[in-house]
Amino acid sequence: MKAIITLTKGGACLGYRLLKNMDNTVLYVNSKFIIKEDNIYPIKEKFSDFVSKLFNQYECLIFIMATGIVVRTIAPNIKDKKADPAILVLDEKGKNVISLLSGHIGGANEYTKHIAIILGANPVITTASDVNDSIAIDTLSMMIGGEIENFSDATKITAHIVNGEKVGIDSDIPINIPLPENIVYIKDHIKNCIGMIYITNKEKIKPIAIDQVIIRPKNIILGIGCRRRKSKEEILKAIDDCLEKLNISKKSIKHIATVDLKKDEKGLIEAAKELKIPLMIIAREEIKKVQDQFEGSEFVKKITGVGAVCEPVAYLSGKDGNFIQNKKKYDGITIAVFEEGDNNGNRSSRCKS
């Protein structure tokens, strides 16, 4: 959801025009210039208080006013590039659209380009990687749906890329996006590289003596079944034990999947919340269609109505890929680990055949 914010009559006119051309957007205007239409609201309180209230409610804030006002107003609310919303600034005539904050992760650069097309305006983007037709690590991570292990490392590698220095890339998944010429695919030999990009779900990788950054692809699905009233702590411990043996990073978990019978299981719900990942619920009717592909249990079938849980729920909730761990028991908890392929069905080189 996006919010357009303006205080003047000229800004309100431009805001109305922009609102009509953007989906999932609301407009906030000075109450003196408001018109009664859907998704248009008055600004009633002190402006700084108003912006503080809205700052974390929207993914993108589009200000139509002087840049100086915006900078001074948002300054107390800025916290972290991973959490701050995209901030854009437009002049009242709609001549320029400025990407002010969260250009990559927040998407401000893309919003700027989009609005510039709508208004026929000049997009003002100052991030070095965009100016130099290069790519930043946070942009690369976003494009593959990954998570950066360490943002300080990402900044160093992005600087090498923008400066035209040779950077190697070693990826466990196919990268179907164009990369600058100074990013080269390398498996082991890193001669002449000043930095390395690793795209991997492996928790531990071989240390090297040059700058490096790790991007975690979200391609691991945990299929979990458990006895009733298993605690969050017990489930998290089982997950830790499982992933440690497989050398898999928790940051690569896409979601946990379980059977509909467990949709209210407190321990599972809290474990997913602790890991900040979704809990996917799979209906038993769907499991019945594929359960014959997996080793079943009469005891489980008697309790749940299906012969297997953790393997079929992982399989059904994922894309093409393979199990890197079939059903394994952890004191009343069963876990299967499924590694997804990409949208084209390609699989990681570590998948079993």
Strand order of the largest sheet: 3-2-1-4-5-6-7
Q: What is the domain tally?
A: 3
CATH class of the largest domain: Alpha Beta
Largest sheet: 7 strands, mixed
Give the strand content.
Answer: 25-35%
Task: Give the averaged pLDDT, no decimals.
Answer: 89
The coarse overall form would be globular
Please trace the helix and strand order, writing H or E for each element.
EHEEHEHEEHEHHEHEEEEEHEHEHHHEE
Number of helices: 12
CATH architecture call of the largest domain: 3-Layer(aba) Sandwich
Secondary structure tally: strands: 17
Name the helicity range: 25-40%
Taking the alpha carbons of the first and last residues, their distance comes to 42 Å
Q: What are the segments in which pLDDT stays under 50 over at least 5 consecutive residues? A: 343-353
CATH-defined topology of the largest domain: Rossmann fold
Key terms for this structure?
Udp-n-acetylmuramoylalanyl-d-glutamate--2,6- Diaminopimelate Ligase, Chain: A, domain 1, 3 domains, disordered C terminus, 353 residues, 5-stranded mixed beta sheet, 12 helices, Rossmann fold, Nucleotidyltransferase, domain 5, 7-stranded mixed beta sheet, alpha/beta
